[in-house]
Amino acid sequence: MDPSPPKRVLLIVGGGIAAYKALELVRLFRRAGVGVRVVLTRAGAEFVTPLSLGALSEDRVFTELFSLTDEQEIGHIELSRQADLLVVAPASANLLAKAANGMADDLATTVLLATDKPVLMAPAMNVRMWLHPATVRNVDGLTGDGVRFVGPDEGAMACGEFGPGRMAEPQAIFTAAMSVLATGPVAAPPVLPLKGRRVLVTAGPTFEPIDPVRGLSNRSSGKQGYAIAEALAELGAEVTLISGPVDLPTPAAVRRVKVVTASQMLEACRAALPVDAAVMAAAVSDWRPERVADRKLKKEAGAPEIRLVRNPDILATLSQPGPERPQLVVGFAAETDHLEEHARDKLVRKGCNWIVANDVTRPGVLGGEENAVTLLTGEGEEAWPRATKVEVARRLAERIAAALAEGSEAGDVH
Ligand code: CTP
């Protein structure tokens, strides 16, 4: 049988600072043997040049609707017919609005209106523009027309604001495009490397009551743990998230168990076993009051003496060898100094496989949206670049998937 002919993508590059990422996207397609032809909008050309796109795509770049040479050599209808998939990256708010309303006032929008091929859009815009009801309507309309979307991601934006609106990374757009290309017009099933795997995640602080209204707790927001639970579920894992008191919604397709104290968290973890992997992202209180007063302590009685006793170490307990020990146990270490040294010591002391260490003295880490972590494994350490907690979670989930897959073959995880 003949091998199937090489796939071709028509890449529409809209306006926006993210346009520079289109260069990397072209490179990824070319490296995978996918033909790329580029349509560059006028706004897109403010950010990236036809010359660089042309050099990487090894083809000419189309810009004008009524260019005589463009139309003579290849008409705008032909441009979309020759492609297997149209990818719009970045898809600006304006381009989305025009496409949603069937406008065709330049080459990009004309091609989008004239095509009968699958379309994948990677939106990129300011967070307020993305959340504006008009954009929400446009995205709904386009989705109804069969257009697929990848991203946007959440994070710090070029405009200095924070939230959803950043264009998905080229690798994510490439992966989404390849899955559409692999299956044609029918929605591609996502790749789910953790399908059939059970994973346990702890998140948030614990709260150790002193009396009915007071207690010991800490400033953990739970954001990193929740993002990890979500990222693992996105890869197909059956996730149980054991959460201390935080005000975050349950991530999609995740089973959440709410607890208050460290003892309850340990109980809930035990009940969730057996699992393939456990990620202990909770900031568990190391101590609890020995006695919990059943009535509110009154100040007339003077300052209370509160005796503290050690809480069980959930991470160390789950890491103990035995038939129920997860194949991979990941702990966290929040450090203020000697990051690697303290984290390595914790790895050995607690008996887990990996430690995700973070420097909590860095601004914006505690309670913020970003994290700067170092991953310590039995084989060494890697400092990951500062990224959003969602990005860190996705990277960790990928690593866990790879380790479990490798471990199944090798019978162990390092
Ligand atoms: N942990 C746990 N149960 C505890 C305490 C901690 O499961 N009772 C887990 C956390 O979820 C995290 C890791 O252990 O994965 C953090 O270890 P810990 O020793 O608490 O780290 P620090 O808070 O950095 O403590 P210290 O530096 O004081 O030892």
Outline of the structure:
This protein is an alpha/beta fold and 414 residues long.
What does this structure look like?
With 414 residues, this protein is of the alpha/beta class. Helix content is 34%, strand content 23%. The chain has 14 helices and 22 strands. It has helices at residues 21-31, 50-57, 68-73, 76-81, 93-100, 107-114, 127-131, 133-144, 170-183, 223-234, 262-272, 314-319, 339-350, 389-410; strands at residues 8-13, 35-40, 61-62, 85-91, 119-123, 148-149, 153-156, 162-166, 198-203, 208-209, 215-216, 238-243, 254-258, 277-280, 287-289, 308-310, 328-335, 354-359, 370-371, 373-377, 380-383, 387-388. Strands 13-12-9-14-17-18-20-21 form an eight-stranded mixed beta sheet, sandwiched between helices. Helix 5 crosses helix 8. It is elongated. It starts with 7 loop residues before the first strand and ends with a helix. The structure holds cytidine-5'-triphosphate (CTP). Cytidine-5'-triphosphate binds at residues 202, 262, 280, 282, 284, 286, 311, 313-315, 331-334, 346.
